[in-house]
């Protein structure tokens, strides 16, 4: 697949993810009879508009984002079908529906990637190589946890060891049907010589391969999706603790570049599409989680505001003017757009610097 084609497919993938997210809000709003004034794909001036019933459907010229504009989102109106007039629990479902749809599409993408595979690798030790000094582990042990983090898929093993740093780690393994806690296990890599004479650093632990049935494949897809949810939290931990900087964060441009590079290096069209779908699952789950963070302008910030205002109104018996919440979300949106602009310019600079 050419670089140009892979970029087009990557942009199309982003568009699908945005469409699915906004479709979640749209379908939930329609289900609860909340008036939707406009359902837009992309941003900027409209290049296509069609009104069906009360809703204007549009495609706009800047291929970024999209929105589902509901009556009375940030202002109070007399319309009985406005967003603010809906019960608090209906508004809550409408707000989280976008993230829920992203999570579902991520699950679907991962299913497309992993379900055709005939062989998977489990965190069960099948061999301990000569030269490995990790004496506490035995053949047949299934790694359940590393430093308190659950092992959903095998890649978690090395990832968590790397993220936590150091040489000694606490493990929980399943041995002969019983959970065994292993404290301060010295997990050190050693130099091993491969068959071709070259060397590599590894732990000296070989994990089991197995041929999964349909239910094991479905379980693997679910675990992989949940693992991506956890990875968002681990990434945020690294940012807040200073182990990762803003320079290591990629925006839409950087992610499209990574996707197109990986896809264009594939040996076949099918492999390229599988790579793009894998990135799509990763992005969809990340968007689902990030959108639910309690930050103004994001769905999570709106959920927090909804719960707070609902609680305050229940106690004081006074309705809070939604315009004040609108001001907070508007300020949050400006800051988010500024951050996105900084990251985008950083991504563009990195691409041209290569």
Features:
single chain; 354 residues; alpha+beta; two-stranded antiparallel sheet; 8 helices; globular
What would your notes on this structure say?
The structure is a single chain. The chain is of the alpha+beta class. Among the domains are: 3-35 and 71-114 and 280-353, no CATH class; 120-210, Roll (Pdz3 Domain). The chain has helices at residues 3-31, 88-114, 155-164, 214-241, 252-264, 269-291, 299-316, 322-353, and strands at 36-52, 55-70, 120-128, 142-146, 149-150, 168-175, 178-186, 190-193, 199-202, 205-210. The strands form 4 sheets. Strands 5-4-6-7 form a 4-stranded antiparallel β-sheet, covered by helices on one side. It has a two-stranded antiparallel ribbon with strand order 1-2. Strands 3-10 form a two-stranded antiparallel ribbon. Strand 6 (168-175) and strand 7 (178-186) form a beta hairpin. Helix 1 packs antiparallel against helix 2. The chain is globular, with a radius of gyration of 24 Å.
Count of beta strands: 10
The helix content is 40-55%
Number of helices, counting only DSSP H or I runs of 4 residues or more: 8
What is the H/E string?
HEEHEEEHEEEEEHHHHH
Distance between the termini: 21 Å
Could you say which overall geometry the principal axes of the C-alpha atoms support?
A: globular
Radius of gyration: 24 Å
Structure classification:
alpha+beta
Largest beta-sheet details: 4 strands, antiparallel
Question: Can I get a quick summary?
Answer:
The protein has 354 residues and is an alpha+beta fold. It has helices spanning 3-31, 88-114, 155-164, 214-241, 252-264, 269-291, 299-316, 322-353; strands spanning 36-52, 55-70, 120-128, 142-146, 149-150, 168-175, 178-186, 190-193, 199-202, 205-210. A hairpin with a 2-residue loop joins strand 1 (36-52) and strand 2.
